[in-house]
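Colleagues,

For the teaching module next term, I've prepared a clean inverse folding example: a structure given as tokens, and then the sequence designed for it. I'd like students to try predicting residues themselves before seeing the answer, so please don't circulate the second half yet.
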């Protein structure tokens, strides 16, 4: 089975005190209405999937108005010993499947996890978002991404380390997607936007001699976990006596697709992935 890791991105204005673009949107609302089309145009960048560290190749294998499917390969040359007792270098290009769903209520990326091509899927996400960042900035936008994770990942950690948790930090992307931002308290959403923040930290810390009380019945706490788990941010936990933090982002949500299906007709692959991501 091919395993694909799931990410969510949010497209935000660099400055909510938007003064208008001479050749584009005239108001902040105009900019937000056009953000997905601007993002779609940025994906046409010739630098998409370019890496300065290794040689990469990418091919767009399917595209409709809002869904793009790519094959991305990295040159992982290998040494090969021949029957003549010689050693030769042979090219090897392991590839991964990458899907980008660019609709206002979706904004999802699925990246096939294949360590022989890329050590982790975060590396592939950077190959998408780093090259297009300057193009979005020219249009006064920024795209921020986070992995999706199962909300149970946080509560499992909370139960496992009950009585030992000294700090919990929520790193939250300022929401601009109604379907996931509605779980956040309205005052927190408004506060982030009024202060022109693209990211916010909500940190809970107790006295060193005590421990945080982390309960799923706490509505405010539960809403923060729900939002982060849907790709709205990361949660880190620090335990008594430990400097290293535990991160929920490491429990990334994934879907599985039959390997044969991944190699099949691109349109059929796209439709299958849409069904799994919907």
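(Answer key — instructors only)
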């Amino acid at each position: 089975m091919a395993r694909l890791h799931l990410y969510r991105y949010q497209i935000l204005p660099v400055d909510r005190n938007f003064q208008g673009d001479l050749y584009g949107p005239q108001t902040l609302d105009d900019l937000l209405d056009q953000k997905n089309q601007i993002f779609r145009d940025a994906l046409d960048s010739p630098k998409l999937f370019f890496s300065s560290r290794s040689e990469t190749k990418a091919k767009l294998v399917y595209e409709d108005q809002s869904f793009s499917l790519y094959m991305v390969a990295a040159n992982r040359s290998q040494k090969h010993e021949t029957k003549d007792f010689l050693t030769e270098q042979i090219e090897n290009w392991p590839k991964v499947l990458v899907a980008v769903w660019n609709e206002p209520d979706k904004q999802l990326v699925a990246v096939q996890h294949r360590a022989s091509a890329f050590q982790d899927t975060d590396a592939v996400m950077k190959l998408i978002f780093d090259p297009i960042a300057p193009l979005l900035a020219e249009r006064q936008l920024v795209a921020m991404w986070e992995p999706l994770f199962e909300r149970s990942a946080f509560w499992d950690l909370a139960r496992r380390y009950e009585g030992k948790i000294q700090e919990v930090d929520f790193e939250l992307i300022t929401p601009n997607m109604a379907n996931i931002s509605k779980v956040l308290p309205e005052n927190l959403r408004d506060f982030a936007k009024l202060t022109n923040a693209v990211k916010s930290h909500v940190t809970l810390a107790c006295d060193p001699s005590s421990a945080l009380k982390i309960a799923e019945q706490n509505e405010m706490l539960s809403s923060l976990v729900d939002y982060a788990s849907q790709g709205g941010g990361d949660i880190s936990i620090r335990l008594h006596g430990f400097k290293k933090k535990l991160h929920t982002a490491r429990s990334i949500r994934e879907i599985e697709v039959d390997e044969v299906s991944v190699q099949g007709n691109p349109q059929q692959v796209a439709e299958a992935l849409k069904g799994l991501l919907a």
